[in-house]
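It is worth pausing here to work through a concrete case rather than discussing structure prediction in the abstract. The textbook approach is simple: state the sequence, then state the predicted structure, then interpret. We follow exactly that order.
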Amino acid sequence: MKNTIFNQTYSYPEAKLITIVNHMSALVIQASETDQLSVIAELSYPDYIDDIEVGDFITVSYKNGEINIELEEIDELEEIHHRKESFKLQILLPKLPTVKLESENCSFNISGIESDIALTIENGACVISNCKGSLKLESENGPLKLHNHTGDLRVTMENGPLSTDGLSGDSLYVESENGAVKMRSCAFTNVDIKNENGVIYYETLPVDNAEFSFENENGVINLVLPAVWGFEITTETDMGVLRNKLDAPAVKVGDTYVISSGDKEAIIRIKTENGVIKIGHDKHLNMDYLRTKIDQLKEAILGSKDSADKANVQKLVDQIIVYVNRGINAIHEEKIRDAVNSSITKLKEAADGFDVNETKDKIIVTVESIGNEIQGAFQEFISTFQDKYNGEYIKDFKERIFRHGGQHHGNFVDPELGERITEKVFKTMRKVMPGAFDLKEQERQEIAEQSRLKILGMLESGKITAEEAERLLKAISKE
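Step two, the predicted structure:
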């Protein structure tokens, strides 16, 4: 194999915008630890191909506050499907107000950027994680995945799916033709999602003064709402069906159904032609939301001046107590349950005895301490659960998966074991903190690779049949 490396650093302190046009390969974009721009390309290719200088296909220019980077396609690699070769392409960005990205067939993986990002892509995939700033994404056929992003979001898609979790901002707009839209743990104030033939799944955290609109022609709309939240929902469907799993009833008003609960902190409109409308409550306890409510409570106490302000403080306390009580139901350890209940009692007593005319510093310190106690109790539950899982369930899992008996195919594989573990072992955990045992993408890939090698080894040694190996490998690929 031959190797070619390009590693250059640039300094443009006056730059306000960077435009990257990528036709070379899958591109990783990350935040630079310095104020400089770095472009890194490492390519390994077969000896029979003429020498390649990867730097000849990279152009970096600067003019009037704008950086332009062009990454050209390397024609010599087309015949060997160069994306399967060893090709590392990375750009480290200094902090800039605006980043523009363009590509036809090459994917992007973007993380840790604090900039407004505008991306246009035709067939490649895009993954964006742990970024801040507005996002404007246009995609024709590739999948989009967004994780832990803060900022307004506008997405226009044709045929690819959109999947997200942990997003927040003022405004969300999504328009899709044929791809599924699945968004979890969102906190947007204004939401407008339109789809034609794919599913819309939207899971929201409580936000104040929210306005949501969902429209679909032929796909299902599934809306998941927090339990501690007021709303007014208006649903309209031509040929579809409404399935309401909320505590509040659906009341028919003309051609629509209206569902109301609480103080109408959210106005929600849902419309579909042929698809089913599903509405239900979120059963999870989100610790980030709990932390936010504690912070809101401290701000309300600090700014309180009269009885109306004290009533607002009491309302926030009641919301926190109701919310925390949902998590207690998942905890079986009496000591931890007692600790949470004790913290709830102290929080209620602090709010009842609060005097708006007295110094507020002491009560704020008390609230902060109680909030830490509640979170600490749930963290202890997580640790206890994890120890139990490591000590008992993994051992049981290994024993049942890898049983050796006889000289040939004594290994026993239970096809339903994975589902039962997910249902019985992780069910309790995910009620309290969803995602606590979720692996990072790199970790997941490493484990999947180890599993693939083990399965192939078992097939080679005759411990499993080819049919069993194929089924197991397909299961890994689905993960």
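Step three, interpretation. Residues 403-419, 428-432, 435-439 have pLDDT under 50 and may be disordered. DSSP finds eight helices and 25 strands in the chain.
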